[in-house]
Each structure stands twice: as structure tokens, then as C-alpha cells.
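Problem 12. The chain below contains 83 residues. Write out its predicted structure in C-alpha cell notation.
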Amino acid sequence: MSTVSEIRARFYAALEQGAGQSKAVAIANGMGASVLDLTREGIAEMGKAEVIELLEAHGADPDKRTGVEKLREQLIELVFVGN
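Solution.
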């Protein structure tokens, strides 16, 4: 079982790596990438690195200089085509 200090350290490390709050909580609790919320609300909470990774996984070639909000919009367009 992890100590509170270890969990806190994993949480802040995940945030520093660009994870959104929900993903950072999952990582801190040892769930890692197994928790992926691909709802519009979940995407809105994702960090830039996570959004870029998902865009690339969907075959897009995102401009990494683009702001996170624009990248989130692109991901939502890919995930929710026609919705």
C-alpha cells in the first residue's frame, strides 16, 4: 500500500507531465492509463500531452505549438464525427 506522500508525489508528477486532473488522480492511485474518459467532459480535463497522444493515435498530425484548447477541439471532432 502506498503512503500519502507517495500518492501525492505521483499526482504532482503526472500534472507536471501534462496529464489532466482526472488522469493524474488515476495515475496517483495506481490505475495509470487504464482509466480513459473519452467524453466531451473528459477531453476538456485532459492535459496537452495526453490530447496530442490521442490525436496521434487517431491518425492526426497535431501541431504541437497549438494551444491545448484548439487541440481539444480537434480531438473532439475526431472522436465525435457526425455527433
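Discussion. Helices lie at 4-16, 21-28, 40-45, 48-57, 68-79. Students who got a different answer should revisit the alignment rule from Section 12.3.
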